[in-house]
Amino acid sequence: MNKKFIKILILVFLVQSLHSQELHNVEGRVYNIETGEPVSGASILVTKTLQGTSSGANGRFELRLPAGEYHIKVSSLGFSEKEFLLRVPSDNIEDTGIGLIGKKIEIEGVDVIGSLFIADRDTSINRVPVSILPAVTRISAIEIERQGAVTLTDAFKYVPGGWTETRGRKVKQFFSVRGQRYPYPDYSINGIWQKEFEETSYFFSALDVESVEIVRSSSALVKGLSGLTGVVDVRTKRPVGETISFSAKYGQQNNYVTNFRYGNKINDVTFNTSATLFGTDGPPGRNGKERIGNFHGDIDWEINSKLKLSAGTAYIGGSREFVSIIEAESSAPNLLGREEAFDPLRTSLNYAKLYYRGDDNSLTELQTSFSYRDAYYRRYDLPGQETGQEKDWEYGFNLLHSRPLSSTNTLRLGVLYNHWEAPEGKRYYAGRACNVHTWSGVIASEQRAGKFLFDAGIRLISGYIVEFGDFGIEGGMPAVLLNAASIEDEIAPLEWQSVLGVSYIHSGALSFHYNFSGGTIAPRRGSLTDQGVTPENETRFQHDLGFRHITNNRNEITFSTFYAQRQDALELSGETVITGDDYLMELYENLDKRSYGVELSIKFNIPVIHSFLFANATLMRGENEIEGRMEKDNKLPNVILNTGVLFEHSGFDANLFVNYTGPYTNNRFVRGPWIAEHGDFPLGDFFSFDITAGYTFDRRFSTRVFAEVKNLLDQRYLTVAGYPDYGRLLFSGVRINF
C-alpha cells in the first residue's frame, strides 16, 4: 500500500508539474503615449528570469510564459522605463498595450530601427525586410530637436553615409546616401509615395516630424519606386491625448523659427495641427532673404476595430531669394551677379489612407494623394525683371495588401498609379509641357524557417508619356541639340527591381544579414547627352552583408559591407549648353561605375556620467570606367564620419555633434580657365561642430531654454563650387509644453 500510495503521489506531482509548465502566448504592442506611434526595438524583460524579447518595427512583441505572476520591465532609448505586474493567463495576454512616455531631454541614438525579434504574424504594410536592417536609420523628434534642425534636410546631417550637397541652401539641397545619385532617394509622407518631393524637403518644417526612416540601400520595394537608391519615409506627429506646445528661437543673420502645435484625442478621433514660421536675411552682401510658413494638420479616425481612416494636409508658402555666387575665379561667368528669387512660393501636400484589417489578420490599405507646387521665378538683374512660373502637380493611388499564408509566411502585394503634370516645364530648362502617367506593381514574400528569415520581391514600373519637353533646347548651342524634340505619346521603358535577402537570428541579441538587389533605373525623361540623344537605362546590382548586436541595456553595434555595380550609370558629363533664355543646361553621359565600402555604427549608454554616445563611419570608394579601366571617382568623398555626445541630468542637457566629410572634387559652376590652371576644383574635407545646451524647468509647464552654436569652428567649407557655408551662427530659444 505504501508503494502504491507513493506512486500515486508521484503521478499527481508529475501531472501538476506538466500542467504548470503549459506555455501561454503573451502578445502586445509598445507605443509612444504622446503620439501613438509604435516603439521599435524596445526591450521587454521578465525580471528574475532569463526570458525577454524586443518589439518589432511595428511595436509588436510576443512572449511564451507558463502560468504565474511576472514583473515585466520595458525600456527604450528616449523613453522613461516602465514596470508592471502581469498575471498569466488571467490578464488580457492576447493584446497587451504598453505605453511609454518620452523623456523630455534624453535623446535616442542615431541609426535606431527595428529589432532582432521577428513576429510570427507581422503583416505590416510598409515593412522594410529584416535583411536590410543594418542599412536603415531612424531619426526621432527628440533627435531633431537636439540637433536644432529647422528643415527636413537639416535633420539628415548625421545619418551614416549621408551626404548633402548644398548650393546656397536657397537654390537646392540634394541628399544622397553612400554617394549614389541620379536618381536621388525617393520620399514618402506617412508611407505615401511622393514623385516630386526631393525639392520640397529643404523648406518642409522638421518640427512637424515625429520620425524619419531612411533606407540607405535597396529592398524598399513596397515603400517606393526607387528602392535601389534609398527611400526616405517621413512620419508626422500624432498625439494620444491633449498636447499644446510652443517653441521659438532666434539667431544671427536675423534667423528665426517659431512653432505652435495643438493636438488631442476625442473618443475615436485623434488630430494634430501645427504652424511653423522660419526665415533669415542670409549672409551679408549675398542676398538669401527667406520667409517660409508651414501649416500642417493630420487626423486619425478609428471607425471600428477593423477600419481606420488617416488623412493629412500641409501648406507651405512664402518667398526665397537665392544666395548669390561669389569668387569669380571658381564660378561660371554667366551666373555671377545674378539676383534671383522664388516670390511667391506655394506648395500643398494632401494625403489619405483607408486601412482595413481582415478576420484572417490580413491588412489592406488604400492610399491617395494630391500635391500642388506653384512658384513664381523672378530675376532682378535684367531689364524688365524676367519672370516665369514653375507650376506642377501630381495625384496618385496606391493599393497595398498583406496577408499571412501561414504562421511563418507573409505575402505582400501592391499596385500604384501616379499622374504628374508640369504645363510650363521646369525653371532651369526651356519651358515646354510635361505630362506623364506612371504605374507599377509589386509582390514580396517573407518566409521564416527556424532562426532564418528569407525575403524576396519584384517590382515592375512603366507608364505613358503624353508629353515631356521641359528639357527641350532652343538656340545658342551646338546644332546637334537644336532640333531636340519633345517626347510625345510614348510608352515609358519598362523598369524592373528585385530583391533577395536572408537573416540569421543567432540569439535575442545578435543577428547576421545579407541582402541582394538588382534592377534597372530609367533616366529622367528628357535627359540628353552631348550628342542630343536620351541616355540608356542603368542596370544596377547591390549587395549588403552585415551584423547587429544589441545588449540588454540597449548598447548597439552595427557593421555592414556594401558593393554596388552600375552598368550605364547616369552621370553629368561636365558639358553644358546655354539656352536661348540664357539658362545653363547640364548634359549627361552613360558610363560604368562601381562603389564599395564598409559602415560601422555604435551607440553606447554611459549611466555613470548620465550620457549617451553615438558614432558612425562610412568608408567607401567609387570608381568609373575610363578607356576600359576602372579608375577612382574623385567626385565622391571616401570617408564620412559622425559622432555625438549627449548629456542629461537634473534638468540640464548638453549635446555635441560632429561631422567630417572627406575631400572630393567637382567642376560644376567652375570656369574652364581656372580648371586649366589649377585642376579639378576641391570640395569637402571639413569638420563641422554643432553644440546645443539647455535647462528644463518641470513645474506647472515643462519649459526648456536653450542655446545653439552652428559651425563652431567657423569653417567656410564648400560642397558645391561657389557656395561656401555661412560660417558660425549663434541661436537662443525656448520650448514650452503646456
Question: What descriptive keywords fit this protein?
Answer:
738 residues; mainly beta; Immunoglobulin-like; Maltoporin, Chain A; 22-stranded antiparallel beta barrel; 5-stranded mixed β-sheet; 4 helices; globular
User: N-to-C terminal Cα separation, in Å?
Assistant: 76 Å
Helix vs. strand class: mainly beta
Largest sheet: 22 strands, antiparallel, barrel
Q: Can you tell me the number of structural domains?
A: 2
The overall pLDDT, averaged over residues, is 80
**Regions with little confidence, pLDDT below 50 for 5+ residues:** 12-21, 104-123, 470-484, 580-584
**Molecular shape:** globular
Molecular structure report:
This protein is mainly beta and 738 residues long. It has two domains: 20-100, Sandwich (Immunoglobulin-like), CATH 2.60.40.1120; 130-737, TonB-dependent receptor, beta-barrel domain (Maltoporin, Chain A, Beta Barrel), CATH 2.40.170.20. The longest helix has 19 residues, at 2-20. The protein is globular and about 110 Å long. It starts with a helix and ends with a strand. Mean pLDDT is 80; it is low at 12-21, 104-123, 470-484 and 580-584.
Care to give the gist of this entry?
With 738 residues, the protein is mostly beta strands.
Helices and strands, with pairings:
Blueprint: H1 2-20, E1 23-32, E2 43-46, E3 52-54, E4 60-66, E5 68-75, E6 82-88, E7 96-100, E8 136-140, H2 141-147, E9 162-167, E10 172-177, E11 186-189, E12 192-194, E13 209-215, E14 231-236, E15 243-251, E16 255-266, E17 269-280, E18 290-302, E19 307-321, E20 340-357, E21 363-379, E22 386-406, E23 409-422, E24 434-449, E25 452-468, H3 479-482, E26 487-491, E27 495-505, E28 510-521, E29 538-550, E30 556-578, E31 584-606, E32 611-626, E33 629-632, E34 639-649, E35 652-665, H4 672-678, E36 682-698, E37 702-710, E38 729-737
Parallel strand pairs: 1-7, 11-14
Antiparallel strand pairs: 1-4, 2-3, 2-5, 5-6, 8-13, 9-10, 11-12, 13-14, 15-16, 15-38, 16-17, 17-18, 18-19, 19-20, 20-21, 21-22, 22-23, 23-24, 24-25, 25-26, 25-27, 27-28, 28-29, 29-30, 30-31, 31-32, 32-33, 32-34, 34-35, 35-36, 36-37, 37-38
